[in-house]
TrEMBL record:
InterPro entries: UROD/MetE-like_sf, Uroporphyrinogen_deCO2ase_HemE, Uroporphyrinogen_deCOase. This is Uroporphyrinogen decarboxylase. The gene is hemE. It comes from Methyloceanibacter marginalis. NCBIfam families: hemE. SUPFAM superfamilies: UROD/MetE-like. GO terms for biological process: protoporphyrinogen IX biosynthetic process from glutamate. Substrate binds at residues 26-30, 76, 152, 207, 323. GO terms for cellular component: cytosol. Its EC number is 4.1.1.37. It catalyses: uroporphyrinogen III + 4 H(+) = coproporphyrinogen III + 4 CO2. Residues 21-30, 140-156 form the Uroporphyrinogen decarboxylase (URO-D) domain.
Amino acid sequence: MSSPHAPLLAALKGDRCSPPPLWLMRQAGRYLPEYRKVRSGVASFLDLCLTPALASEVTLQPLRRFPLDAAIVFSDILVVPYALGQKVAFVEGEGPKLEAVKDGAAIAKLTGENAASRLAPVYETVERVVAELPASVPLIGFCGAPWTVATYMVEGAGSKDQAAPRGLAYREPETFQHLIDLLVETSAAYLIGQVEAGCRVLQIFDSWAGSLPEDEFERWCIAPTRAIVDRVKAKAPDIPIIGFPRGSGPLAERYASKTAIDAIGCDTSLPVGWIRSALQTRLPVQGNLDPVLLAAGGPRFEARVNWILETLGEGPFIFNLGHGILPETPIEHVEKLVALVKNAPA
Ligand SMILES: Cc1c2[nH]c(c1CCC(=O)O)Cc1[nH]c(c(CCC(=O)O)c1C)Cc1[nH]c(c(CCC(=O)O)c1C)Cc1[nH]c(c(C)c1CCC(=O)O)C2
């Protein structure tokens, strides 16, 4: 169902678009006063994700302010552990807290049998959003990559170095494999569900891909991502999938060639010249403005936006941040970014 008038879909097919399509990771959220208003009316962040009337409203909020080229479903990567029966809570000022699964016994208690019904509200959100969006603005569905989701499940929270999941993977690879396999199956079904509800693009967030050495990266990032891509492509061959292996450095090249993703999200640490020569020559690229620089604004911000546009604008390119937008980002800086990208010289 691709529309020739949707710049994001054109770029994902490999077209050079001038100006390039633009959307922002975490574009719905706390930097918007209208988001904070909706958020203050619900008891928990998970309730917000699982209440379609509210989740669809906050998905659309950034689109009402800025002429972005995509919407992204308002949800979280941790709805999947919730769907598997793990206790998940978001504590104000502290981030996610989960009842950690530290061993094989705890992992064996997880089950996908209620996943479809627990995730059904997200599909309803998708239906509601798609009904409101013009054909030029595709809705992006997403999930966390198994490795990244497993880090939160095993650690029970966010962590600096992912030591608990890495340790479990080294000591008990078969136990850890069991968790990853469950996440592959559930996440693939979840992505397919989002496509069936109306999403036209998918993104797989592997936020902690950078904490693994190369052999572990092959096993816990590349292989499970490839397994998800294969499952989704078997059902929805025309839906482009963006992979985002944050922090993977030069391993991003191997990720791009082995996972069968259609486009790669590039984090802030990747040099733009390298993105162009090593990645953009083989697939469309997305990124990679530093979200801290967007929050800071000023001449260095503008110079960097232009540098990215000049370096990557010649090939298939989607302008985005290198990681999620920060809550302290002034709205005027986002407006400035939109103006710079939309008025980029052809
Ligand atoms: C690792 C990860 C998570 N969630 C996500 C990732 C991968 C991308 C990344 O690395 O940032 C992805 C995510 N989380 C959220 C979205 C919504 C769609 C969007 O606008 O991009 C998406 C795509 C909403 C959210 N997810 C969360 C919020 C803030 C909660 C609130 O409003 O109280 C939002 C808007 C909470 C969350 N959720 C997560 C953490 C670590 C936190 C706490 C930190 C924080 O507060 O920013 C897990």
